[in-house]
Amino acid sequence: MKQTECTDTKKKILLQAFLLFSKKPYDEVTFSDLELATGLSRGAILYHVKTKINLFNEVIESSLFSRSSTLEIQIQEKDCLKNFILEFIHNCEVAMKTMRSYGLKNINRAHFNIESQALYYYANYAEISKQWVATEIKIWQQVIKKAIEKEEIIEVDSEAMALVFEKIYLGHAYTDVTSENGCDTELLKRELFTIYELIKRK
């Protein structure tokens, strides 16, 4: 099997496994489910992932640990906080649109379902998740500090304000688990810019 074919097959397995684990508990996802979803034999699947728990762990690493709503955003020189918020919302919308193209209407519910299982099946997941959130908050704080330096916003407690922005997002990510389509990005945008307008230098 060529390297590109191998890589594409592995990506296909991980995507279909993510979709299955997002809808069913780990112990209810069977190799028959995986065979049906991927169109591959059990032997072909095991060639790439070895065991079911390895597959679950790779899904966690490829879909949860690699995701970031802030890490890939380039911090701009002008209106850095305003543009950061706009790009943040855009990234959320792109992620949701991508998942919808695979038939997954609520990405928040998918992540919630998989993360709740990761607490039991993935070693040290709780601590890793805490570190992920801490990294997100740190990036928000860097942007806010720069916005203060550039006189885009007034002097504020950058750490506390970073927590406000991140917790607004996390609140949506959690409460929209039960909605039909996941995060309401228009409402999220309105809330984030309400805070922005309060601290923007007039």
TrEMBL record:
Q: Which GO terms describe its molecular function?
A: DNA binding
Keywords, sorted A to Z? DNA-binding
Q: Which PROSITE patterns match?
A: HTH_TETR_2
The entry's DNA-binding region: 30-49
Domain HTH tetR-type: start-end pairs: 7-67
What name does the UniProt record give this protein? HTH tetR-type domain-containing protein
Q: Tell me the organism.
A: Apibacter adventoris
